[in-house]
Amino acid sequence: MTDRRDFLMKLGIGAGVVGVGLQGVASLRALVPNVSYDTPTTVKLGPPGDFPDGLKFLPEERLFVYREGRTFHAISAVCTHLGCTVRAEVLPQPESAQVDGKTVRVTHRYLCPCHGSKYRGDGQNLSGPAPRPLAWYRLSVAADDGQLVADLADEVERDFRLTLP
Fold it and tell me: Model's pTM, two decimal places?
């Protein structure tokens, strides 16, 4: 049987161990930054004036931005097969294509250098192992500085266009 002195000593040691343990956990928690490591879903692309008519590739965002006059649209440069970055190729002559029942003018196509998938200028997969078209993303204009903003979490239909005033 333990006497009162042993009991109080063990109780004190136990309380000390718990206190040191809690302090250690708090200290370790302070070493972990309070930061989200998720990639942002909205990306500022630059002022609309930085985009000439035609296609512009943004390598960091892996995104193509197409401008035609006052209208813009954004197409993913990520192949839907295994995620390689596709490259754009200008067609010798524009072609007409049916997109959701509408006739559109196509001036380029996309080619995947990894496994040979081919996409029409609107992102529709034509051949190769790619299982689906390239994604289109919603574009908007930032209220604070007027830059084009792509929402990479918001896929839109292939007839989406942002028209500036």
Answer: 0.71
Cα radius of gyration rounded to whole Å, the chain: 28
Cα separation, 96 vs 94, in Å, equals 7
Please give the residue range of the domain that contains residue 24: 1-35
Q: For the chain, how many structural domains are there in total?
A: 2
Length of the chain: 165
The answer to whether 149 and 41 are in contact (CB under 8 A) is: no
Q: What is the pLDDT of residues 49-92, one digit of tens each?
A: 999 998 999 999 999 999 999 999 999 999 999 999 999 998 88
Q: How far apart are CA 3 and CA 42, in angstroms?
A: 67
pLDDT digits (tens, 9 = 90+) for 22-54: 787 777 776 766 665 666 788 999 999 999 998
**Distance (Å, rounded) from C-alpha 151 to C-alpha 158?**
15
Angle at 13 between CA 11 and CA 14, to 5 degrees: 65
